[in-house]
Amino acid sequence: MTPSDLLLWAVLTNQMEMAEIFWKRSPEPILTALVASAILHKMSRRAHSKKETDFKKTMLMHSRVFRQRAIDVTQSLFENNEMEAIFVLEVENSTSVWGIKESCLEFSQAHNISQFVSHHVPQRSFDRIWKGAGFFHDNDLYETKKTVSSLSVKNFIIPLTARITSPFWKFVIHYSIFCLFLVCLSAFIMTNITTEKWPIDRKSIYEYCANLWLFADIIEEYVPPAFYTIRQYLNSKQWRRRAWNHMHNFWNGMDALSYLLLIIGIIVRFGYETTSFDISRRFYSVGLFLMFMRYLHVLLIWRRIGPTVIMLKEGLKELMRFVVIMAVFILSAGVFYHANIYPNHYDMFSPHGMRYWSVWQIIYYPYWSIYGEFKDEIDGEDSTDTCSRNETVYMNDPDIVRCPEKDWMVSLMSGVFVLTLNLLLVNLIIAMFSFRFEEIKNNSDHFWRFHRSQIRKPEQN
Description:
single chain; mainly alpha; two-stranded parallel sheet; 22 helices; globular
């Protein structure tokens, strides 16, 4: 057995002292440490799902040890020779580590090893590639060691010859065109969703320009990675892992959802024609909203704005967890309100259409009462002039609603509901936001460097 095989055995069996001995004999210490760290981190997640708390803590601690070893070796190389350290990180390894031959940069980005990616040596490599220097190849280090002058000339020529094709300028051009796409799609949605699709006139040019960019962006987003993955002859499990890692990213998920909604809007527009196009307009509008939110991803590139965007993203995740808890309170209170404000209601589902279903009132009343709305309805008074107590009238005319009934129990439960939700749950989410804010603020440089590298990754590839 080779030292690499023995190291894998030691990692999987949690023999960390033996693992350190075999790791020191590894020909690729940085990549080996990163792979071992990723394996141990994955094992800790499996232990968490199995409720093995002690085993999870042990795996996480050992994962951090290997991650720190990779950082220490990189830092030591950098102190001895800056260019050689960058070379080692960028070049694909000639010796595979348990079948993995990716470069250290590619592997650390693919497996979200944020502490390594945010270290200043990988960040220098990213900056170098971002400005157009390109990745190192196997013979570059030998050539740059020949003379100091050749290295100086090379570093001087790079900005002049590769500036236009650099990832930075690709990024600028791509998002400049993206801004034009947002303008075209906004103009189309606000002015020209009509039955006239052909010939192209001055207004409909917005629609076809927006559709052209949309399909081009989808092809750019998914086709090259798919071809790259096919060329690697991956099995189905590796395909699923890569797809999961891609969609697990917050911004990639938002992109996919916006693409899906806009494509559905296009299909509904051309396949289900109506006079008002309300359905397609709604799909277009929500898709456009997500496209505007996608622009926040661009702002991560700037040091002063990036940490704030990260806080917004993490705060949104906390809010989604809070919404699940709040939904339980809203549904329970909504059913209580509706049952007592409209006793013996004729039906939950109106024959006049989905918009008149009673289920919407069940959600509306408790949700907006958090902000002080619907006080009159809860007190048994109508805030509009279009209600009736005659069952025949409000059943046959959907524009006339049933007048609410007064019930002291509703007012009492409304006070308890608002007290619980406003004082307890809202303050709970504020405390969660504050904790998350302090965590990101204390590690803002680390978080920002990692997220910035994730933005640069598609352009560099």
